[in-house]
Amino acid sequence: MKITLSYGKEGLPIEVPDRNLVKVLRMAENPVIANPEADVQKKIDAPTGCQPLSEMAAGKRSACIVISDITRPVPNRVILTPVLETLEKSGIPRDKITILVATGLHRPNEGEELVTLLGPDIPKAYRIVNHRGRDLASHEYLGETPLYNAPIYVDREFIKADLRIATGLIEPHFMAGYSGGRKAVFPGICAFESIKVLHGPEPMAHKKAVECVIEGNPVHSEALHVAKKVRVDFIVNVTLNERRQITGVFAGDLEEAHDEGVRFMSAQCRSEMDAPVDAVITSAAGFPLDLTFYQTVKGMTAAAGILRERGVVIIASRCAEGIGSPEFTRLILETESCEGFLADIRKPGVYTLDQWQLQKLCSVLEKHEVWLYSDGIDLETQKKLFVTPMESVEEGIARVKARFGENARIAVIPEGPYVYAALKK
User: Would you say 261 and 169 are in contact if contact means Cβ atoms under 8 Å apart?
Assistant: First the structure.
């Protein structure tokens, strides 16, 4: 069977023998919203759990809107156009509206990337600020979180605004259960000092800090505490299908609107298997998520749940920008073994930016192998990333058949981490 994996901007066609293909796991086909801007306007006029955005904005002198950065395919222009028009009609001057890019600890998005994020018109008309998580001086301290006593440092641009709005995409997330809602604030606009605790070894190792689990997930509950502490007045979140079309709009109260979106997305993204398979062929969901190996780890964790013991994740990811941040690149290239790394990060005072991603990779490697196809990282470097390089996905299929037999069971997840692959209970 011929299948196209999400890979870069173009996709990657592969062929899987019919005798080996058990299932292609995809999202449910929910109806596409025909006029998404009109639907956003409808939802902000009649939101979930709070008064309309126009009423919230009345009498306010300033507003700050948090948006996701370039690593997320959020349709920001569609979301922002009705929101910005509503704010201005409600009396907030355009020059008192700030769009804050929630980079977390990622690099800033500037120049042409802002056009990619927002379209050509919004960057010309509004003040846009990149969050800089390593600049502690640009944050306000708001106390500590209840579970892990993480210091709460939030970007001052958001705190000083009279009206505080968070936008984003609801999708499975490999540590917070689902993205969206509170994640725009934590880690989106928090300082390194906050993130390093809540992305530390203990919360990352928690059995419920995984995809599609909210109840009992400490990463979710701590992030929600931070967002409530800073006071998010209004959220606008969307869900997308595999073609990046909007299937749902959820707006209003931080918790109630996000819960509504999570319920919708949990039904859309879940795809089940009757029994484990020998190998899963998957992706990092294509551009923009597969820009780096760092982000590619999300595709590995999402696929591992349907594998047999010592099964194989075959993942295709372009990695056009290489491994990731300088810190993550240096960390993974200098790490000799997962065992040594996991022991080191539990020692007092040992911490490296982005170590949580390597911890999640190691959690997959404890039970399975990962084979990588990427034309963005040379094969010799790939060997240092705890993966087995492949020159093609078809080469990986041949290796799987050599290991598990001619009738090896293979599943395919073309959209990688956007699909929640699970075994039927």
Answer: no
Residue 50 CB-half CA count within 13 A: 23
Q: Which of 106, 131, 225, 368 is catalytic?
A: 106
pTM of the model: 0.89
Task: Name the nearest CA neighbour of 99 among 71, 63, 134, 124.
Answer: 63
Tokens coding 328: 């993550």
Preceding omega of 187 cis (within 30 degrees of 0): yes
Of 131, 173, 225, 258, which residue is the catalytic one?
Answer: 173
Task: Tell me, rounded to whole angstroms, the distance of Cα 298 from its chain centroid.
Answer: 8
Q: Is position 199 annotated as part of the catalytic site?
A: no
CB 33 within 8 A of CB 249: yes
Share of the chain above pLDDT 70, in %: 100
Peptide bond into 389 cis (omega under 30): no
The one-letter amino acid code at 420 reads Y
- The alpha carbons of the chain give a radius of gyration, in whole angstroms, of 21
The maximal CA–CA distance of the chain, rounded, in angstroms, is 70
Q: What per-residue confidence (pLDDT) applies to 350?
A: 78
CB atoms within 10 A of CB 277: 26
Per the annotation, the verdict on 106 as an active-site residue is yes
Q: Please give the share of the chain, as a percent, with pLDDT higher than 90.
A: 95
Cα separation, 215 vs 424, whole angstroms: 20
